[in-house]
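Second attempt. The first submission of Ribonuclease had a stray character pasted in from the spreadsheet, which I only caught after the job came back as garbage. Lesson logged: always re-copy from the clean sequence file. Corrected sequence (212 aa) follows.
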Amino acid sequence: MMAVVDPTLELERELHEAGAAWVVGCDEVGRGAIAGPVAVGVSAVLAPCADIPAGLRDSKMLSEKRREELYPHAISWSHASAVGLADSDEVDRLGIVKALGLAGRRALVQLHEAGVRILDSVVVLDGSHDWLTPALTSAPRVLTRVKADRDCGSVAAASVIAKVHRDRMMIAFDETHPGYGWTGNKGYGSAAHYEALEALGPSPLHRLTWLH
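This time the job returned cleanly.
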């Protein structure tokens, strides 16, 4: 059984000590879904960072119930947080990488409006590919880090914030676009979801270019 790894603030504190006014954790959810938006969460922290809320981890390591419980703590722990979205039509028109960049830009704009000095920040981006910088006209330093959602507190917070935000959206779509099982699949391609597609055809939420 794989050992559970708790995130730390080691990287955030190193970046603050090196001169970053803000450290912004950044993570995406919904990239592999066949329906619904892609969401990019951001969690901005100033020095000194308060201790990470107990139990906060990468959203993929938490049950849906536990994510809901931790969501308000992740928001209140962050000095500022936001979720940017790119909808299914934008994913179809732009492709997933550019849609991620668009969602990330929208999230950073929200942080800017909340008073975060984006250009004085370092963004810690989960993964090895910087899909964010090409979407920005004036870009902060972006530091990619594999497993940052597991290892870095700010990115774990961003992961939970984005996941709960997007999941709540998908659950609400059960009322406006029923029959696809959004409450269970959240837009991902489960067997029951594909069966619903066969019976009902695609909804306005589906990424049509992903269904061929």
